[in-house]
Amino acid sequence: MDMGQCNDAYSAIQVAVALAETFSCGVNDLPLSMVLSWYEQKAVCILLTLLHLGIQNIRLGPTLPAFLSSNVLQYLVEHYHIAPITTPKSDLEVMLK
If you average pLDDT over every residue of the chain, what do you get? Predict the structure, then answer.
């Protein structure tokens, strides 16, 4: 589901929270992932907000931010299941596993 630009992330979070309440589960239990495109610097603030909220399975792209060192990226992958975007087909296959 396309929720708009990165500054529309709050709407996506509200939809995910409502779905989780409807299905009596946590947001991270839903078959959803958030794709955060790195076109503007405000995406950094949105990523930090999502991490603070405990949102997992975030996809970053089209390229990873330059400030992500290999150690920071490894931590985010291990603890938040963050991954770079690939192709739509590959990203969907990963989500449906």
Answer: 83
Residue 18 CA, distance from chain mean position: 17
The answer for residues whose C-beta is within 8 angstroms of residue 46's C-beta and 6 or more apart is: 6, 7, 9, 36
What's the mean pLDDT in 45-65?
Answer: 85
Alpha carbon distance 15, 49 (integer Å): 16
Q: What pTM was estimated for this model as a whole?
A: 0.62
Which segments of 23-87 does DSSP mark as H helices, in order? Answer: 42-52, 70-80
Helix (H) or strand (E) holding 60: strand 58-61
- φ/ψ of 95, rounded to 5, equals -65, -35
